[in-house]
Amino acid sequence: MTLFDEKADLFARLRDGGPVTWQGSTRAALTDQDVVPHTESPLRTWVGVGGSPQSVIRAARHGFNLMLAIIGGHPARFAPFSKLYREALTRFDREQLPIGVHGPGHVAATDEVAFDEFLPRYQAMLRTVGPARGFRVPTAEQVRREVSPDGALYVGSPDTVARKIAANLRTLDATRFNLIPC
Q1: What is the DSSP annotation of the chain?
Q2: What's this model's pTM, rounded to 2 decimal places?
Q3: Could you tell me if 72 and 59 are in contact, meaning their C-beta atoms sit under 8 angstroms apart?
Q4: For 147, what's the count of Cα atoms within 13 Å in the CB-facing half-sphere?
Q5: d(Cα 58, Cα 69) in Å, to the nearest integer?
Q6: Which of 57, 130, 140, 156 is deepest in the core (most CB within 10 A)?
């Protein structure tokens, strides 16, 4: 946790520009380090969080935009993180910043075509990354539950996926959506 906290803090200071003086325990200190190239304004930065309140608060403290990385389960369970982020921005006397949602999916002409194209690629991807992350390869039935309106996968026709995105953006007080193609 210390490594990530310190790297986020250092990045926030570098992002803001100007000479940076910084000290931590995970890398060499900086003293009046110039940051080049110089930018006219700080870089817009998004930080993905997957369920840690500490990560949400860290993003607000540093003035990073929040991206809710939702890869499973009902997206509405992330609504408390949106609220926490808004409250933390206020507590840190920061302007209100956008919240985004980041989720896996696939769009095709029909819901069934999208599912049939998505399922084998999704399962193959989880066979590759699953062992290292402790994920099991889901069955077709489990994937169908995640594709349902209450699940985290955005798979279907353009209308189906658009309705699900719009509903979850409202639920999560978000204004951006990033689809991870599978």
Answers
A1: -HHHHHHHHHHHHHHT-S-EEE--SSS--EEEE--SS--SSPPP-EEEESS-HHHHHHHHHHTPEEEEE--SS-GGGGHHHHHHHHHHHHHTT-----EEEEEEEEE-SSHHHHHHHHHHHHHHHHHHHHHHHTPPPPPHHHHHHHHSTTSS-EEE-HHHHHHHHHHHHHHTT--EEEEEE-
A2: 0.89
A3: no
A4: 24
A5: 15
A6: 156
Query: pLDDT per position in the chain (182 positions), as tens?
Result: 788 899 999 999 988 888 999 999 999 999 999 988 888 887 889 999 987 999 999 999 999 999 999 999 999 999 999 999 999 999 999 999 999 999 999 999 999 999 999 999 999 999 998 888 888 999 999 999 999 999 999 999 999 999 999 999 999 999 999 999 98
Q: Which class would CATH give 46-181?
A: alpha beta
